[in-house]
Amino acid sequence: MTAAAEGSPPLRMAGGRRNALLQSEAVQGVALISPTFLYALILLVLPILVVIAHSFWTQDYLTIDHTFTLENYRIALTEPIYRDLLWRSLYISLTVSLLTVLLAYPIAYFISFHGGRHKSLWLFLITIPFWTSYLLRVMSWKVILGYNGVLNSGLMGLGIIDEPSTALLYNSSAVIITLTHAWATFAVLPIFVSLEKVDRTLVEAATDLGDGPLRSFLRVTLPLSAPGVISAALIVMIPTVGDYVTPKLVGGKDGVMIANAIQAQFGKASNWPLGAALSVTTMIIVSLMAGAAVLVIRALQRLAR
Amino acid sequence: MTAIRRYLPSWLSSYAALYILFLYLPVIFLPIFSINTAATPKFPLSGVTLHWYEDLPRTPALIDATWNSLAVGVSAAILSTVFGILAARSITRYRYPGRRTVNGLIMAPLVLPEVIVAISMLLVMLQLGLSLSLFTVVLGHVLVCIPYSMTVLTSGFEGFDRSLEEASADLGESAFGTFRRVTLPMVAPAIISSLLVCFTISLDEFIIAFFLTGTEATLPIYIWGQLRFAAKLPGVLALGTLLLVASFVLMTVAEILRRRAARRTQNQGGLYA
Questions:
Q1: Could you report the predicted ipTM of this complex, rounded to two decimals?
Q2: Hey, are the CB atoms on B227 and A139 less than 8 Å from each other?
Q3: Tens-place pLDDT, residues B79-89
Q4: Which candidate in B36, B120, B142 is best for mutational testing of the A interface (most A CBs within 10 A)?
Q5: Which CATH architecture has domain B46-264?
Q6: What's the mean per-residue pLDDT of chain A?
Q7: Is residue A62 one of the residues assigned to a domain?
Q8: Residue A126 lies in a domain
Q9: In chain A, how many domains are there?
Q10: Same structural domain for residues A31 and A91?
Q11: Across the interface, do B124 and A46 touch by the CB < 8 Å criterion?
Q12: I want to staple A133 with a disulfide (CB 3.0 to 4.6 A). Which of A94, B112, B204, B247 is the partner?
């Protein structure tokens, strides 16, 4: 725009007109989006700012003391219970995102490269379970893994175990299995999209130049689909850190995660500032972990090439 | 090497079949055990009954929760689709600085931990002195539905042939008239699809409703309350099955409409050529 305006006089006039036009276009565009933008601003950005503010305050019974303090963060980071919960949440979400991406990649590859005419049908099949209630999907894992559940009765029926195993439900593995299942779709879609963008002639070129299927996959397809792997990992990692339902239903004592502690601070324990500090800490740490994951995947991508 | 090349696709397709099984199997247990006579969900089934379904309409709390969910779902669907239409139209039709940032902010609820979104809204609403009710649940649901609505609508609005609108404007139609008589009919399937998607999300959403509701329960909150009682499990499974079927039907219709919208806008030339 500025380049056009710096041209010769007649051009500048045309550029000026175009600028005015663009400006009215921009104004219309901004005007159209502003209600939605304001809505997100008031109900998302403002609330998060309020949470951040609360995390620096303290609560004395029912009144909030507005003097600045870092005490909540000290508790969030050093109290063993919160530190353990944070670590466990990070461990669980990292494991879940690794598992979902590993499990999702082949299926995304299959649909993109061998899906043929049925690509959209495959995608639809994969997305349908995701549209069912999250609560119900978690509940169905409880039915499967429970003491009197499907897996136990099945294993007993097959004579593999003599009495129901209590090791299946109410621990962090149960949380990991349930979350891996619940977030599967979220990992398939971004990987599929990035595989669709891989230029097929590049794969052919690699094959023509003597690379076997495995080698051309590792050196061409896989590095080129790295952006999809990155978004899949992030889109699973960030929300699962703060999952509340799954640990509550299938996690038991050993599967409690940070979201349950946050909820307790806003509920029974009624210490909003501490709950706010825990929320902010979780968001910061998960952002750091997400950043680290991006760096690692990028480094691997460079190595592969 | 040729062996790998030959067997890879068949390997992959068996993996794909297993993956689909992994996705569907857990969900399928809900309907199976909802017709079991015994209250504990284990094989073999002790007998088949529709008893648990018959009990559902006789539970007043459940009827209330259903009406609440319907009211919240319809309001959230309409509001988020209106917000979605405005934003998607702006994103696909206009170019202006900061477009990507604004879009990113609107889509952010998709990738934030839901508990944190719910709690921060709760804090603000309490500070503003709003009493918690189904209205506050609607406010929260609209926020999380907008990103999905945007996704559906942008796929319907993209590739929309702008020359049709220009032609309409050149022929003397006002901006509103053009929108109503040219744009709207073309994107109607996408809009209906967005309504259905948002309604389904609101119907199934638990966390935000759990934090933002006052005394009134929506269906997922009702289910959550029932989960504490082992004896109530079959009834919950029956209700869950009905919800699954509802979501499945709604989403299938939404998907068909979304595809029709995408086809309509992209192949416009082909249709008339």
A1: 0.82
A2: yes
A3: 999 999 999 98
A4: B120
A5: Orthogonal Bundle (1.10)
A6: 84
A7: no
A8: yes
A9: 2
A10: no
A11: yes
A12: B204
Would A150 be classed as within a structural domain? yes
Domain boundaries, chain B: 46-264
Of A71-75, A94-98, B34-38, B156-160, highest mean pLDDT: A94-98
Give the domain range for residue A15.
2-53
Distance CA B128, CA B117 (A): 17
- Joined tokens for residue A155: 């294993």
Q: Are A49 and A188 in the same domain?
A: no
Is A266 within 8 Å of chain B by CB?
yes
pLDDT value of position A120: 83
Whether A246 and A128 share a structural domain: yes
Please report the residues numbered 9 through 38 in chain B whose beta carbons come closer than 8 angstroms to any beta carbon of chain A: 9, 12-13, 15-16, 19-20, 22-24, 26-27, 29-30, 33
Q: Mutation test of the interface with chain B: which of A85, A101, A135, choosing the one with the most B Cβ atoms within 10 A?
A: A135
Q: Is the CB of B9 less than 8 angstroms away from the CB of A114? A: yes
Report the pLDDT value the prediction gives residue B258, as an integer from 0 to 100: 75
**Residue B120 to residue A33, Cβ atoms within 8 A:** no
A93 in any annotated domain: yes
pLDDT mean over A259-286 = 88
Question: Do A95 and A49 have their domain in common?
Answer: no
Residue numbers in chain B where pLDDT is lower than 70: 1-9, 43, 159-160, 264-273
